[in-house]
């Protein structure tokens, strides 16, 4: 990953972004909202429910671990005129729009910018900050692919 920091990107001068809490990234097409063990525990505590209850009521198992359920319209289960778990939202949500798929090309970034009104406003994220976020996401995705779902569930149930 170190050599990535020395390459040139369309975001070399940085990008402004501030979450507007509009829900554009929480609604629309269905997707996968990965949550890891620490996130599950943190969200369950925030909601004042046991981890096992949280898993049963709000998550579904996927090969890599768990994903937050969605409504039939693709809206995150926790989004209803705002994110009900915003202070403890998963890292996947926290790091949007700085996802690898959005930063792969200027074309992808422009498409994302049309969907996300927070892009172009707020704090300027430097190239290094952006790449650090991408790197942290990649680590999480790789880790989730290595997680055995059965062991994951067993270790989460109190």
Short descriptors:
three-stranded antiparallel β-sheet, two-stranded antiparallel ribbon, 158 residues, mainly alpha, globular, disordered C terminus, 7 helices
Structure description:
With 158 residues, this protein is mainly alpha-helical. It has one domain. Helix content is 41%, strand content 10%. The chain is built from 7 helices and 5 strands. The chain has helices spanning 37-47, 51-58, 91-94, 100-103, 106-115, 127-146, 149-156, and strands at 15-17, 34-35, 59-62, 65-68, 123-125. The protein has a 3-stranded antiparallel beta sheet with strand order 2-4-3. Strands 1-5 form a two-stranded antiparallel ribbon. Strand 3 and strand 4 form a beta hairpin.
Low-confidence stretches: 147-158
Anisotropy-based shape: globular
**Beta-strand content:** 5-15%
SS element count, helices: 7
Mean pLDDT: 87
Please give the order of strands in the largest beta sheet: 2-4-3
The span between the termini is 37 Å
Total strand count, please?
A: 5
Largest sheet: 3 strands, antiparallel
Summing up helix and strand content along with how strands pair, one would put the structural category as mainly alpha
Number of domains: 1
Radius of gyration: 16 Å
SSE order, as H and E?
Answer: EEHHEEHHHEHH
Q: What is the helical fraction, as a range of percent?
A: 40-55%
